[in-house]
Every structure is written in C-alpha cells, then in structure tokens.
Amino acid sequence: MSSERNKHGVTFADRALLVSLVLLTAYCFVFTKKAMPQGSEVKIEVSGTLLYTLPLSHDRTVTVQGPMGATIVEIHAGKVRVKASPCHNRICVHQGWIDSGAVVCLPNRVLVTITTPGRQGEFDGITG
Amino acid sequence: MKIVIYRALVLILLLCYSSCTHGGEKVFKKSRLAMDTVVTLTVVSSAEQDAEAAINKAFAEIDRLSKLLDHFSKDSEVTLINRSAGLKPVSVSKETFEVIGKALYVSEKTFGAFDITVGPLMDLWDFREESLPDSAVLKEKLSLVGYRGIILNAAKRTVLLKRKGMAIDLGGIAKGYIADKVVEVLKSNGIKAGIAAMAGDIKAFGRRPDGKPWRIGIKNPRPAGKENGDDIIAAVDLTDTAISTAGDYERYFIKNNVRYHHILDPKTGYPANECRSVSIITADGVYTDGFDNGIFVLGPKRGREVLGKLGLDGIIVDSAGNITFTDAMKGKLELREK
Amino acid sequence: MESQDRYRIALLSAYALALNGFETLIPSPIPWLKPGLANIVTLVTLHLYGFRAALTVTLIRTLLGSLFLGTFLGPAFFLSMGGGIAGTLAMGLITALFPRLFSPLGVSLIGAFFHNMGQLFLAYLLFIQRIEAVLVVMPILATTGILTGAVNGVAGRYLIEAIESREGMSPPSSGGDILHS
Fold it and tell me: pTM for the full model?
C-alpha cells in the first residue's frame, strides 16, 4: 500500500515547476501594472507643490489658494478649465477648456496639467 | 539531471525577464513652473524611478542656471553685470560667459537684429499696463544699445558693459541654452531619449519608444476659434534637434489697431513687424532661441538669406500670414491649413 | 481489446463532459475562459492509457460539449478546442520525454498552463487584437492556471492511484495499451 501511495507522489521537479510558475505569475502582475497606460488625470500644483491629482472623468470644482488668492479649477465632461483667478490679465481663464496640455496662472503660481496616455496626444511638444 | 533542469529553468526565467523589461519602455512627462514659464520634461525610460531621478536632476540644473542668467533676480550674474555697466568688468561662471559669447555670435550673423543689449529698451515697454514708451526717452536709450559694447575677456572670464546705463537681457537666448544643458543632464543620467521643453524652446533627443521621431507642433500665430486650445499650423518630426519659435502673439497688446509685441528691433526700439512668427531648427537650442528672434527682426527676405548662409532651417510666417520655409524642410514638415 | 478501449474512452469522455457541464454553472467574469476541470479526465487518461487516448477524449469532450451547450463553432468552441489540444499536447510531450520527472501534479500544472496560454493566444489572434486586454488578463489566467492545475493534479493523482489499486495495473510509462493493441 505505501509503495503505491508514493509512486505518484510530488517530485522535486513538481516543486521546482510550481515555484517557477508562481514567480512567473508574480512577475506578470508587476509587468502588466507597469505597461498599462493610465487614464487621463488632472494635476493641480500651487507654487510647485502638487495639491490634487483628479480623474478627468469625474465632474468637480476645486479651489486652490495661491499667493494672490483663490483660483477655481473646474472639471466637466472630460475637460478642465480655470474658472476664476485673482491675476491681472486672466490669461489662464481666457484659455478656456482643455483636454490635453496645461493651463497656468503664473501670478498666482497655479499649474493645471493633464497627464494623457502617450498614444492620445498627437504632439510630443508645441513650439510657438 | 535535476540540477540541469533547475539551471535551465533559472536561465529561461532570466531570459524572459530581460526581454520583457526591454519592451516596457514608457514615456514619462513632468511639468513645473520655472523661469517664469512652464517647463515640461519628457523622458523615455523603462523604470519610473530612473525617469524621476533624471527629471529631478534636470530641474535642479534649470534652477541653478536660471539663477545665473535671470536678469530679474537681484543676485544673478546678469544683474551684477548690468549694475557694473560703465564701471568694471565682472567675473562670471563659465555658463554665463558661454551664453553671452554665443549671443554675440548670433548678433554678428544677424547684423545686430538679435542683440542682448536691448535691456534699456525692454524696460520702456510694459505689456501688462499696455503702455507705449515716450519717443524721446526711447531715442535716448537707443544710444545704449549695441552688442559691440560688450567686452569679453576669455582669459579672465569677465564681462564688461562699456557704457553706463547699458543692460543685457538674456531672455531671448537663455531658454534655448538651458534646454541644451537639460538634455546633457538627462543623457548623463542614463536617459537615451526625451524632450526638454522650456515653454516653446524645445530640444528633442533620441526617438519615441515606438521608434518614430518626436512630433512637434508649431502654433498658429492667428488661431481661429476659441474651441481649439492650440491651433497648429505645422508639424515637424525631430530627433536630436532643437526648435524655437519667436512670435508676435506671446506678449503683446493692441492699441489703435496696431499690434505692439515684445520682439523689438534693436535699431528702432519698436517691435519688428515683417513677421508673425519664425521657427528655427538646428542642432543646438541656444542657436534656435537666439536666431529665431534675429530672423524675426530681419524679416522674411533677409532672414532667409542669413539662414541659407548659415545652413540653418526655419519656417517663417510673414506679416500677411504667408508661410515659407527653407528647402531642407521640404520633406520633414507637414503643413496644416484650415 | 479494442472494444474495451473504446468503451473506456467513451466512459472517460462522458465523465469529461459531465465535468465540463458542471463547469458552466460556475460564475466567472470572463465567460469564455474556463478553468478546465475536465482536464482531470485528460490527465488520468494520459497517464493510464496514453497520449492518443487522452487526445481523443479531449477532442470528443470539446466537440460534444460545445454541441450540448449550443456553442458549436462559436468563439468558446475554438478557444476550448485550442486550449484543450495545447494542454493535452504539452502533457503528452512531457510525459513522453521525461516519464518519471513529474508526478501527475506537475503534469497537470503544465497542462493547465499551456491550456490557458493556448486559449489566450487564440483569443488574441482571432478576437481581440488589443495587447492591453491580453496583458490585463494574463496575470489572472496565470493564477487560475496554477490553482486549477494544482487541484486537477491532486485529484488526478488520487484517481490514478485508486484506479490502479483497483485494477491492479502498473501504469505504462508512455504510449500505453492503446497504441500496442
């Protein structure tokens, strides 16, 4: 009885195989996580500090405080804009809605950037 | 037998690992406010930590260089040079010396159309308050403009402005220079491909992970509607090249139907008006930055002559909106007309 | 002899089909990627009766299974066919090359691995050309592959031992009775 029971017992090769498969699987998890492009996000930075990272897909309004006062950032329908800002020229407000690139309010030190997955943005840079 | 198999397994796993990570090259982008504008660094790397480390080193270098070259800052070397105008030569770092030297080269080649000594003139214009300078004061200040008034001593590495009241402004060349330096920092930190974009002064090196060159768009000087954030008039494919654009739409105001913008003709003190935008393409950012202003001031005809003589490539949008470009750009440029 | 083998194959196929049907009752986020419990039968068949028998059982199971479930010639059919063949081939190959290296557990792990990879590969080729979908699914498949491979392997081992002790057979190392009769 006992000799038959161990005839098909777990061999060294079985163990080695199991270990390699587990390692391979673990590696697949890591690799997949890295290779996947991330969804579009909005990053809001004030004076160089990142305050918010928000998904473009979720409508919301955010107010940030800069040296000059409050800048209101609005996310709606997959786009983002600076709604109001205490700066003199309001260039940031006039830029309107963007779904790629960035809007910046230099006087109030506010930077709103969109991180797009590499494939979507056609241009890697804009000059002019 | 068992050991052989074990070793073979390890080998196979290692092979898989190495081939897998090579395919995992990604593009990382990071933007920050620096030098009074938005700086975006794009980096190709297979590991996020490597990309971040290189990017941080690059931003540190940008901070270091802008401290030397920024004439708005109270303790920059440029401010020191300006304060000692007509008094004594100022000892400077090799970077500042290098930038000024290259600026003088651009001045010579553009017959003075690009001139960093326009400091006194720039002070007279305020694009925020939308004020025009007094013409009498302007004429007076013109006498202080002239790149030949900059005396460089290579042996001692000093800079002297000959006359009191002279002032240099490196705004028209510093960003391109810094873009070059940033790329050097990225390369020495193991990055093989990427883009350093100091606002519109861009230097691209290497290629995208898919093997294609980097695609750079040139802004339309007169975009049509408010829906499109960036209207692009042309797309250029670049690898290991820099591009800069001088445009009359970056800082300006319109008064009495006349557009006053920040690219001044050093000979008149008023904005040059033969072009709407000029984009220059060549290997070094310091030259694309300096020459784009110079060619802008020279205008389309003389500008193209200079480009031809120097072997530089460029795209010129004249004051009527006509687009011309150097012959070498024919295959590499994709024009987009509405 | 032949009729007895045919009888065996038919019986085994029936068991495999039963397991297959049972499997469809299990809820899964990815409907057409099934763990392959019927592979226990394939495993046991391979071990006791050789490669040809195992392959036959797999083919019968896949074909009839899809007919019974109404998925004949549908995507699920091709995928389970492809996966089944891949898995059986791999198991047969390893058993032929290295008969005593792996126990049923190891053979089953190999079978499950190739079964899943075969399905994934076919799915990519025929249906979803987007590499992102493959990448997302791969770790999950690899995990279920290990799990079902292990479960099948253990179940298979005890089944084999039970059958052997009952019939008093010593298992052929490769080829099996079917090829020689």
Answer: 0.60
